[in-house]
């Protein structure tokens, strides 16, 4: 089974809005609804867990937009890591070790279906998958022959996108270990950071979109333009 864990507990402080950005409406529909529809229509996703601090609002969105794959809700934490941890522990005894957990921002309404599918394939083969793409522009030296220990080569960098997928047993053990050792609060900002801290190898999966997550106010305009273009 493949389970989408959709993180929708953030406050949206970077947008400076009284409304958490996952609930901001674009063309009459909450951003979260657009994101959930992506997983609802994905043929490889069997169930959805939403991490939220407003259960009633999420249930209403799912009812309005016919999100039939919603199976679980759990409370968000005070950080990305704690929200993911809550989801991971919520799924204990609900799914099996080899099930794939696909983690997504609730404000990632432009995530391509191909990226979700490839993340699942890579995670099933290697245990984890992080949607990632090459860095197009950065401060670097392109010629390896003149690089120094202080130089960062563009070819050696990856920018991660959305989503990330993990075999459940490995993901659960990682968070359980971090809690037991009291290191979870020291590790930010993402599950990849935890895996690196534990010395685990990260595998990359396909990234076909340069813009997956709504972060800044300008992204709202970009997303609206993208929706209008898709409708033409």
Concise overview:
It is built from seven helices and nine strands, in the order E-E-E-H-E-H-E-H-E-H-E-E-H-H-E-H.
Structural commentary:
This protein has 232 residues and is an alpha/beta fold. It is 35% helix and 21% strand. The chain has one domain: Spore Coat Polysaccharide Biosynthesis Protein SpsA, Chain A. The chain has a seven-stranded mixed β-sheet with strand order 5-4-1-6-8-7-9, with helices on both faces. The radius of gyration is 18 Å and the shape is globular.
Percent range for β-strand residues: 15-25%
> What is the H level of CATH, i.e. the homologous superfamily?
Spore Coat Polysaccharide Biosynthesis Protein SpsA, Chain A
Count, helices: 7
Order of strands across the main sheet:
5-4-1-6-8-7-9
How far apart are the termini?
Answer: 35 Å
Structural classification: alpha/beta
Q: What do the pLDDT scores average to?
A: 88
Q: Architecture in CATH?
A: Alpha-Beta Complex
Q: Which runs of at least 5 residues are low in confidence (pLDDT < 50)?
A: none
Q: Outline the biggest β-sheet.
A: 7 strands, mixed
N to C succession of SSEs: EEEHEHEHEHEEHHEH
**CATH topology description:** Spore Coat Polysaccharide Biosynthesis Protein SpsA, Chain A
Q: How many domains would you count in the coordinates?
A: 1
Strand tally? 9
CATH top level?
Answer: Alpha Beta
**Percent of residues in helices:** 25-40%
Radius of gyration: 18 Å
What is the global morphology?
globular
